[in-house]
Design goal:
81 residues, two-stranded parallel ribbon, 5 helices, mainly alpha
Length: 81
C-alpha cells in the first residue's frame, strides 16, 4: 500500500490492520468495512469517478520513506546514549 501511494496511486484496502495506518479514506484511498462483494463493487465504482490528488497521496507516503526511517533510528539511538 505504501509503495503504491509513494507513486501517487490511491489504494482500496480492507479497513483493518496496517491499512488503518496507511490509508486515509477519501485522501489516499478507500477502506472497506467488510469482505462483502457488493461493498467492494461500490468502492471500485467510487474510485473510478473520484479524483484523488496524486501529489497529496505521494507526500503522505513519505512518512514511510527509508530516509525518515533512518532519521528516526538515529534519533532513538541518540536518546538512549
Amino acid at each position: 500500500m505504501a509503495e503504491a501511494q509513494a507513486c501517487g496511486t490511491p489504494v482500496v484496502a480492507y479497513g483493518q490492520g496496517g491499512a488503518l495506518d496507511i490509508v486515509t479514506p477519501g485522501v489516499s484511498g478507500w477502506l472497506l468495512r467488510s469482505h462483502d462483494v457488493e461493498e467492494l463493487r461500490a468502492v471500485v465504482r467510487q474510485a473510478a469517478v473520484e479524483d484523488l490528488d496524486s501529489d497529496v497521496i505521494r507526500r503522505g507516503a513519505e512518512r514511510f520513506s527509508a530516509q525518515r526511517f533512518r532519521a528516526e533510528i538515529v534519533r532513538a539511538v541518540k536518546e538512549v546514549i
